[in-house]
Amino acid sequence: QVKREKPETIPDLEKLVQEKLTAIESKNSDSDLKSNEKYMYFMDQLKEMKKQFRHISDGDNETIEQIDEDIAVTRSQLNFICPITQMEMRRPVRNKVCGHTYEEEAIVEIIQSRKQKKKKVRCPKMGCSHDDVKRSDLVPDEALKRVIDSQNK
């Protein structure tokens, strides 16, 4: 639309973008967030952590900081572990559809064996609802590979 208009009649694009953004933001609600799969997964993890560390007093800041550090370390290590092989990934590939990563060789082997049986492949990441993983959905995760390689040096 802007390309067709004369320069004098071009609308205030910044204002238009802001209006659209405000309209989209007004449609968002807390109920949308609470039904989000990632939000629900995070809240479940939080509940589990609270159960595990319920005995820690609020005044024990050093212990709480240690737990936070442990959570961060554990989370980063989990990113390196293939959900199929349960081993550290050497050639990680990311699923473009659901965003999960796997060891390339392991997921390709599963896809090929299920294809021979004419069956779909469900994402092996626990809790994921994606039930049709295809070879064409997989892309090398170079960033994760670099992080894993640098961690191992």
TrEMBL record:
InterPro entries hit by this protein: Nse2(Mms21) (IPR026846), Ubox_domain (IPR003613), Znf_MIZ (IPR004181), Znf_RING/FYVE/PHD (IPR013083)
One GO cellular component term noted in the UniProt record for this chain: nucleus
Pathway where this protein functions: Protein modification; protein sumoylation
SMART domains from the UniProt entry: Ubox
GO molecular function, one term: ligase activity
Recorded superkingdom: Eukaryota
Subcellular location: Nucleus
Classification via CDD domains: SPL-RING_NSE2 (cd16651)
Domain SP-RING-type: 67-153
GO biological process annotation, one example: protein sumoylation
Alphabetized UniProt keyword annotations: Ligase, Metal-binding, Nucleus, Transferase, Ubl conjugation pathway, Zinc, Zinc-finger
Pfam families, per the entry: zf-Nse
UniProt cross-references to PROSITE patterns, sorted A to Z: ZF_SP_RING
Recorded family membership: Belongs to the NSE2 family.
Family matches, as PANTHER family: E3 SUMO-PROTEIN LIGASE NSE2
Protein name: E3 SUMO-protein ligase NSE2
Organism: Tachuris rubrigastra
